Amino acid sequence: MFEIKHTLCPSCSVGCGINVILDGEEIVGTFPYKRHPVNAGKNCLNGRNSIDCFKNKFENVDLTNSIADASNEIKSANASDVSVICSGNCSVEDIAAIKDFAESNGFNIGFYANDLKNFEDVASYDEIANASKVFVIGDLLYENPLIGRRIVHAKQNDAKIYALSKNENAVTFNIADEISNSSVQEFLDKFKGEIDDSSVVVFNYVDEAGDLDKIESLNCKALPVFSKPNTKGALDIIDSKSADEMVELFDNTKLLLVFNDDVVDEFDYDFTKISKIITFACCENDTTKISNIVVPVKTWLEQDGSFVNAMGEVQNFNCVIGSDNLGIIEVIGELNK
Amino acid sequence: MSYVLAKSQNNEIHEAGECGGAVTSILKYLLDEGLVDGVLALSPQDDVYDAFPVFITDSQDLLKTAGSYHCAPTMIGDLVQKYFFDKKVAFTVKPCDMRAVEELIVRHKINKDNIYMIGLNCGGTVSPVSGREMIDLFYEANPDDVISEEIDKGQFIIELADGSEEAVKIHDLENEGYGRRKNCQRCDVKIPRKANIACGNWGAEDGWTFIEINDEKGQELIDGAKKAGILETKSPSEPAVEGRSKVENIMIKMAKKNQDATYPLVSEMDEWSRCISCYACRDICPICWCFENCELNKPYFKDEANIPPLPIAFQGVRLSHMSFSCVDCGQCDDVCPMDIPVSLIFDKLQKKYYNRTGYVAGVLDDIKPPLYSPEKTEL
Fold it and tell me: Which chain A residues are within 8 Å of B279, Cβ to Cβ?
């Protein structure tokens, strides 16, 4: 039966709405969610392709056996040798369960937020559109287009746009008044005198932790934009680690439990040094390829939950299709038995 | 072509539907008589600004589709071709939906024998997010309190839960950048005459729908619904027919005026420089049906160094492939993350094509797509 259903896009932290088209038990396409206040029916290519994770779900994996194998491995390991990797791909509810699971078992917990952090008072998307000056760190127009659109709106409202990107062909440069390929620190230092309380700094990367302190000390609002849909929500629950701290955690791990993330893709690290890797994932990625055990879990389309978007709004999503798999909370319940 | 005024004989539908519930009754007749496998119609979701097509197979469910939803600018043509090719299906169409369906029929992407098109006259649609903003700014009302909206006599009218109404002139709203979507403002096809029937309130008495019967299938529909006892009809008066024609002509005149004012040179449009090559415009276009075989999927269009792509290379391919068949539905504008007014250029080229050939996409009786038509080989 043909059906269209509302959900959220899981491809970054902007928090766009997206409709999915169901034909019977299959998700066959996406449809614009024009009523959604964040994106008004506009989705980037990543967003429209986000349903691929449902199409590429694990098949032929025996769920009962994989959970039993994972449980045996976990129970036979020393707690101090076990590290749990939490992800901004997980919902608020899943993250709370993962944290509880790690803490109650005495496991280490690692969460990486791309070296970004939570700011207490972030700029809203409307504040970007209405700012008189927008300082853009990263090619936001290309990488986070639905925030990029707010920067375009600011430009149309006569704002001055200052853009920094490592990519010399950055699309954001095409609407910017000032462009730079420098370091974040040099960029901020160069334009420090022009930043005032009607400015907004919007960024999706920094070079080093000190850049965050520098941005936080500015006399204006800022908006960190994360690469995963619920990094902001995760930061409210778990303290993040730096890339170096994550590597240190990997070095001290014999059993790595990865929840809905792809650490192999994210870190330049030799994961073969870790004795055992168990991944809880909804579809194949570089980490599942090298994992000893893969436990398939529900995609976001197959369960209820919530994500916190970059500007701090909690957005709920509902299950749009049934699943034979378990959600992370249910898998943890099985592991705790 | 002939005209009737019609209303539902079913009290529930008469109450819930717009203008006497004739459209909902006709859809019910089609379902109850087994003439179609299902009906594709807009149904509201979270509020009146949020509606999308639902597929209904039980006529009891039709009530939830009754009414008008101007703040839900959807496109039905590509859904029909992708998901309903083998099904017998009835659906409601705005003129741009109808034009897209007609273009897909000549491309053999929709089987005309399988479909019933119930046309809805259309003065234009409003984007839901800007529609809410508009109500917040121009009306003494909370957008959340609106239970229905209507475009009538040049006004955008909202009805609130307490039964009160507020109206603001469309012209005033559009002067401030609100009101109908830009493509709707320049659209000069207001009555979907390639649909089997075209329904609306123009020229209608209160509580009745004015129906233009466009073909034999449309006549059979009306006759069948009457015979089934679900539809009552009567002939419209001569002044009613003239009044409807007058409304249509005024709207077409306004559209032509907007067309004259809004076609820039491509070279003057700096919007293209923010294209991120996301293909949203192509993917939503009801006329672009090549899918995986699209020329734009070729590796040289995938080179990230070519972002933003040269308009002549990226949009040029699409322009050359289908602009003559552009139905100006504005979906490409709606989904562009960078707010590039894509449809402006496609519609402009379609109008140029019209000036040379007289071809209006999805409206004329060409049996083949334009570039395959023998009459146009000189192009």
Answer: 45
Which residue among B52, B280, B283 sits closest to A19, beta carbon to beta carbon?
B52
Is the CB of B52 inside 8 Å of chain A's CB atoms? yes
CA dist B118 and B217 (Å) reads 11
Residue pLDDT, tens place only, A200-255: 999 999 999 999 999 999 999 999 999 999 999 999 999 999 999 999 999 999 99
- What's the rounded Cα separation, in Å, for the pair B361 and B349? 11
How many CA atoms, within 13 angstroms, populate the side-chain half-sphere of residue B127? Answer: 25
Looking at residues A5-14, what average pLDDT do you find? 97
pTM summary value? 0.94
Which residues in A lie closer than 8 A to residue B73 (C-beta atoms)? 34
Structure tokens given for B123: 């003065």
Contact B184, B333 (CB under 8 A): no
Are the beta carbons of A32 and B334 separated by less than 8 Å?
yes
Neighboring chain A residues of B70 at a CB cutoff of 8 Å:
none
3-state secondary structure chain B: CEEEEEEECCHHHHHHCHHHHHHHHHHHHHHHCCCCCEEEEEEECCCCCCEEEEEECCHHHHHHHCCCCCCCCCCCHHHHHHHCCCCCEEEEECHHHHHHHHHHHHCCCCCHHHEEEEEECCCCCCCHHHHHHHHHHHCCCCHHHEEEEEEECCEEEEEECCCCEEEEEHHHHHHCCCCCCHHHHHCCCCCCCCCCEEEECCCCCCCCEEEEECCHHHHHHHHHHHHCCCEEEECCCHHHHHHHHHHHHHHHHHHHHHHHHCCCCHHHCHHHHHCCCCCHHHHHCCCCCCHHHCHHHCHHHCCHHHCCCCHHHHHHHHHHHHHHHCCCCCHHHHHCCCCCCHHHHHHHHHHHHHHHHCCCCCCCCCCCCHHHCHHHCCC
Neighbours of B61 (CB within 10 A): 15
pLDDT for B311: 72
CA atoms within 13 A on the CB side of B326: 28
Q: Which two tokens stand for residue B246?
A: 């007058």
Residues contacting residue A129 through CB under 8 Å, at least 6 positions apart: A150, A153, A154, A157
Give yes or no for a contact between A309 and A38, defined as CB atoms under 8 angstroms apart: yes
- What values do phi and psi take at A327, rounded to 5? -80, 170
H helix or E strand, kind and range, residue A246: helix A243-251
B379 pLDDT exceeds 70?
Answer: no
- Test B338 with A1 for CB contact under 8 angstroms: no
Q: Are strands A314-317 and A133-137 parallel, antiparallel or unpaired?
A: unpaired
Cross-chain Cβ contact A35/B47 below 8 Å: yes
Q: pLDDT tens for residues A269-323?
A: 999 999 999 999 999 999 999 999 999 999 999 999 999 999 999 999 999 999 9
Contact pairs from chain A to chain B, CB under 8 Å: 107
Would the pLDDT of B370 be above 80?
no
Task: State the average pLDDT over residues A26-40.
Answer: 96
Helix (H) or strand (E) holding A61: none
Nearest CA to CA, how far is A169 from chain B (Å)?
Answer: 7
Which residue is it, tokens 């053999």? B108
**Bond into B264 cis (ω within 30):** no
ipTM: 0.94
